[in-house]
Amino acid sequence: MATTTEQQSDSADTDDGVLAQWTQGVIGDDEKRSRLYQALFYVACGFFLVTTLFPFYWLLVLALTPNSAILTGDWSLPVIGLEFPHPQGFNPSAFVEVFQQVPFHLYVFNSFVLATITTIIVLLVASLAGYVFGRLDFPGKGPLMLGVLMVSYFPPAAFLIPLFDAFLGNAVVIPFLGIELFEPPRLVNTPGSMIMPFSALFLPLAIFILTTFYAQIPDGLEDAARVEGTTRLGALFRVIMPLSAPGVATAAVLTFIAVYNEYFFSSIMALENVPQNWSPLVGGILSYQDQYTTDFNLMAAASIVGVIPILILVIVAQERIVSGLTAGALKE
Length: 332
What we know:
Layout (H helix, E strand, L loop, with lengths): L1 H27 L1 H35 L2 H6 L21 H8 L2 H32 L5 H11 L5 H11 L4 E2 L6 E3 L9 H23 L4 H9 L4 H12 L1 H16 L3 H6 L11 H6 L9 H32 L5
Antiparallel strand pairs: 1-2
Helix pairs in contact: 1-2, 2-14, 4-14, 5-8, 5-11, 6-8, 8-11, 9-10, 11-14
Family: Belongs to the binding-protein-dependent transport system permease family.
Main location: membrane
Membrane topology: Multi-pass membrane protein
C-alpha cells in the first residue's frame, strides 16, 4: 500500500516537473513563446468567428429553404448523421417575396430615419455636454457626471409607463399632490414618441465618450482659435470636434446601431404594427407571423436584408470605431 502511494506521488512529481520544464522552455525561448501566442490567438479568433457567424449561416439556410421544408424537414446530414442546419431545397425568391408580401422597405426606412435623427440629436447635445465636462471646471462637476451616467443604468421599462401615459395626451400630474402641470400633445404613432426616449437612453454613453476625447485636446489649440475671434461654440465645432473625429464617429455609430435595432419602446409607442405608425425594422420582421402561420424563411430573409445597412456602415467606419474605442485607453 505504501509502495503504491509512493509511486503515485512520484508520478505526480514527474508530471509537475515535465509541465514546469515545458513552461520554462516556452517562456525562455522567444520563438516558442511567439508560436504559443499565435496558437492562442487563432483559437480565440476561431471561437469568436464560430459563435458570431454561425447565427448568420443559420439565417441564410432558413432563407434559402422553402417554408414547407423547414416545418417538415430533417436537419441531419446524410453522410455523418449529425443534426446540423443545411438548406433543404433552394428558394432564393424569398429575398424578393419579403418586399411583395409586406412593405418591408418602409419598415427599414422607418428604422433608418429614427436612427439618423436620434444620432444627430445625441451628437449635438453630447458635444455640448462633453465640452463642458471635459474642458471646463465648475463646482459639482464629478457628481453631475455621475448622475448623467446613472441614467444609463436604469432599465428602459422603468420609464415606459409614465412616458406612454404622457404621450397618449393625458395630463402630467405631480404624484401624491394631484397638481396638474400641463397636458402634452398626443405623440403615440409619431416619430417623436420614439426619438425622445431613444435620445435620453443613449445620450449618457455618447457624453462619456466625447468627454474623454475633448479633454485630451491641448488647450493651446482652442486658445489660438479664441485669439482669432472664435467663440467657445465656434472652437468646439471648428477645432475640437474635427480633432476628435474618431470619438465622434464612435459615438455616432454606436448610437445609430442601438437605435436601428431597438424595438422595446417602438412596439409600445406604435399602437399598431404598420409602417404608417413608424413601426421599425423588427416590427417588419414580425409581420411575417400571424395567428395561424409563420413564414420562417421570409423572417430569416428579412433579417438578412435588415442587417445589410448596418454591415455597410460598420465596414465603412471600422477604422474610426477601433481608433475611437482604443484612443481613450492610453494616457499621453
